[in-house]
Design brief:
The structure holds two protein chains of two kinds. By secondary structure, chain A is mainly alpha-helical. Chain A is built from eleven helices and four strands; from the N terminus they run ββααααββααααααα. A two-stranded antiparallel ribbon of chain A has the order 1-2. In chain A, strands 3-4 form a two-stranded antiparallel ribbon. Chain B has helices at residues 56-64, 86-91, 109-114, 126-132, 134-138, 149-161, 179-194, 206-210, 237-244; strands spanning 18-27, 30-40, 45-49, 69-76, 79-80, 94-97, 167-171, 198-202, 215-220, 223-229. The chains are: A mainly alpha, B alpha/beta. The interface between A and B is medium-sized, with 18 and 24 residues.
Chain lengths: 295, 246
């Protein structure tokens, strides 16, 4: 059997793939958090709950309406995004003049309520969601077996992250977003409807979380706690990448997924904590994060 | 404030494009404007003179609606704006060039130029703005804040000319700039005036203001205390020195 550093290649690539999958979710989720924090100055603790909601919407579409995975991939982000728009308009928008802490408390409370409602209705044991037939099976590569669905998750995540980045960096809409992130008062004084921008941005950011939830549904079981489990790691990713940095959050998301995977191979005991150790080190050396701008 | 105590007529003849009456304004709990009365007719260049902290910048911020806590009356083309949000006021055809210039660092020079939406027809084309400020064309792809101070000022003015705004609020456009750039900005203001733009200019340097303006309002402790026709400026130079403490 081939080995690298005394580790079977099969195990190494297997864990790297797992890391890449986790990284795909970290990247989409931290991208949404970064966009929302950049423009709204809200630390969106409800992000994990909305990711979970995306997975549940996919499950409900299938169970109650018979609409399959591909429908869910389009509809669930839309439903979660619209729900986010309502949250922003009626609750979060009232907090912009207050300290960050209030936004964090409000969204944390919302996360608890949303999770509680789903737990009450569906229990905590998790609901199965099948891999769509088009993506079942896998490829036998020379060094490992690659399940098709997992490859799809990585490609879909990369595509969505790249498309979001291109829209923000290269389009007129993105220029408004960047300018309003820097100086919303002045952008408003040019005649731009900034409050509408804030609402749509929050809706888009949480729609990304809903999209990630649909991607996750066939891999992890659909469970009211799935968001709470992942969101703490995602916040560490955002801190490492730098709050509000768009590209930084994507790169850091994938990179830390891989680091986590490698740790599982070489020192499994540390795999659950390695991201937090990196966070501490980054905060010590570069408090604004790897890609963050110092204020 | 009794009307009779005014030493000047705040409303000269001719229907004003912009009329400010009894404007008061607050930053949080701090009351900073105590009664500003200004009239600006179409095609005029009017300056606000006064010492640092007199309330000139705050007056511009109140007119464009950034100063949210304000009372009194501000009308533009007869439309009352005192309760409007800044985005609505801008849409009436007002363009704002802030003192700190407000160039966005995450946008290129070209993106900065294209950012403010068109609010009225008849704005300048990008080619016309480039003809006015050739530096902006050469540096179109640079990061906005990599420009020199003078170039940033040109960008801040240029991007407003694109929008079709006909009343331009210019806050200390020459502050901290080299004399040759100050002259270029002076020529630009005169050119805009000749094309029918109306300009409210906040300026510390009244010698510079004298070369451009039709009238000067003197602001002191949040009030307009005097109005001097440009032709009368030299005759009133001692009074002006007393106001400005120079």
């Amino acid at each position: 059997m081939t080995t690298i550093f005394g580790v079977p290649t099969q195990a190494l690539f297997g864990q790297l793939l797992l890391g890449l999958i986790n990284g795909s979710f970290y990247a989409i989720l931290s991208l949404g958090l970064a966009i929302i924090f950049g423009l709204l100055n809200i630390i969106n603790f409800a992000h994990g709950a909305l990711y979970m909601m995306g997975a549940f919407v996919a499950w409900m579409l299938l169970t109650y309406l018979g609409l399959g995975y591909w429908w869910a991939l389009g509809l669930a982000p839309l439903v979660v995004g619209l729900f986010g728009i309502l949250l922003e308009r009626f609750l979060i928008a009232r907090l912009y003049k207050l300290d960050h802490l209030y936004g964090l408390l409000l969204t944390f409370g919302l996360a608890l309520i949303i999770q509680g409602l789903f737990r009450n209705q569906y229990g905590v044991s998790g609901l199965p969601y099948a891999i769509p037939s088009e993506l079942s099976g896998g490829q036998r590569l020379p060094f490992m077996f690659l399940p098709n669905y997992r490859a799809w998750v990585v490609v879909a995540s990369l595509t969505v992250c790249l498309a979001t980045w291109l829209v923000i960096e290269k389009t007129k809409l993105g220029a408004y977003l960047r300018a309003a992130t820097e100086n919303p008062t002045l952008v408003q004084a040019f005649g731009v409807n900034v409050p509408l921008f804030l609402t749509l941005t929050y809706g888009f950011g949480v729609a990304l979380a809903g999209f990630a939830g649909v991607l996750a549904a066939p891999i992890y079981s659909v469970n009211p706690n799935m968001g709470a489990d992942i969101i703490i790691v995602v916040f560490a990713v955002v801190v490492i990448g730098g709050m509000g940095s768009i590209l930084g959050s994507v790169i850091t998301g994938f990179a830390l997924g891989l680091v986590e995977g490698l740790t599982k191979v070489f020192y499994p005991e540390a795999s659950a904590t390695v991201i937090f150790v990196i966070m501490v080190l980054v905060l010590l050396v570069k408090p604004a994060g790897l890609f963050g701008r110092t204020a | 404030m009794a009307e009779a105590s005014r030493a000047f007529d705040p409303a000269p003849a001719g229907a004003p494009l912009l009329a400010v009456r009894g404007l008061e304004g607050w930053y949080g709990e701090s009351h900073v404007l105590h009664g500003i009365d200004i009239d600006v007719r179409k095609g005029e260049v009017v300056t606000l003179l006064g010492r640092n902290g007199a309330g000139k910048t705050t007056t511009l911020r109140a007119i464009i609606g950034i100063l949210s806590k304000r009372t009194g009356s501000i009308t533009y083309e007869g439309v009352e704006t005192i309760r409007m949000a800044s985005r609505g006021i801008a849409r009436l055809g007002l363009g704002y060039v802030p003192e700190e210039r407000g160039i966005f660092s995450s946008l290129t020079v070209h993106e900065n130029l294209m950012l403010p939406p068109r609010v009225k027809p008849g704005g300048m084309s990008v080619a016309e703005i480039h003809a006015l400020f050739p530096n902006l064309k050469e540096r179109a792809g640079s990061q906005g804040t990599k420009l020199s101070g003078g170039e940033q000022q040109m960008l801040a003015i240029g991007r407003i000319l694109r929008t079709g705004a006909k009343l331009i609020l210019l806050d200390e456009p020459t502050e901290g700039l080299a004399p040759v750039i100050v002259q270029q900005i002076g020529r630009t203001i005169l050119k805009l005036k000749s094309e029918g733009y109306t300009i409210v200019l906040v300026e510390q340097n009244f010698r510079f203001a004298q070369t451009l303006a039709d009238r000067h309002y003197v602001v002191e402790q949040g009030r307009v205390v005097d109005m001097i026709e440009n032709s009368q400026l030299d005759a009133n130079i001692d009074k002006l020195h007393a106001y400005l403490g120079v």
